[in-house]
Amino acid sequence: MAQIDHLGIAVKSLAAAKSIYEKLGLSISPEETVEQEQVRLVMVPVGESRLELLEATSETSAIAKFIAKRGEGLHHVCLKVSDLPASVARLKKDGVRLVSDEIKTGAGGHQYVFVHPSSTGGVLLELVQE
Ligand code: ZN
Q1: Residue 113 Cα, ligand 1 centroid: separation in angstroms?
Q2: Cα of 13 to ligand 1 centre, how many Å?
Q3: How many Å from the N-terminal Cα to the C-terminal Cα in the chain?
Q4: Cα 25 to middle of ligand 1, angstroms
């Protein structure tokens, strides 16, 4: 069964964006940098899910390009799936467009892949292994 792992939000400034959640009394993870995605991020736990605030560390970052084109806002929805390789194989077989063909490994060792918005009704979809 899939769950919403987190919602990714593109922001210009982490410091400015996280203050609303601090005012709401939510706890915020320490900042971390993900070199391969050229982003700095914090996680805000909300119930069983999380908000992921994403700030670009470079002008060539996907987050910088997104903000230049569409402004700050919801960037992606992330679903946790029980068998990521099987899910990816099924999507590929059905001709679903993925952002990258390979499953990537994140900073914390987690496995993830992005599904292109053209295949999802306009929302960038991240899938992570449970
Ligand atoms: Zn994410």
Answers
A1: 10
A2: 17
A3: 10
A4: 22
CATH number reported for the structural domain that contains residue 106 in this entry = 3.10.180.10
| 32-34 vs 39-46, strand pairing mode | antiparallel
Tokens standing for residue 29: 């993870």
Give the H or E element holding residue 87: helix 84-93
| Residue 36 confidence (pLDDT) | 86
| CA 30–ligand 1 middle distance (angstroms) | 16
Q: Give the count of domains, the chain.
A: 1
What domain range is 29 assigned to? 3-129
CA of 85 to the centre of ligand 1 (A): 18
| Residue with tokens 């560390």, as numbered in its chain | 57
Residue 6 CA to ligand 1 center (angstroms) comes to: 6
Share of the chain above pLDDT 90, in %: 89
pLDDT in tens, 32-87: 999 989 999 999 999 999 999 999 999 999 999 999 999 999 999 999 999 999 99
Examine the pLDDT at 108 and tell me if it is beyond 80: no
Is pTM beyond 0.85 here? yes
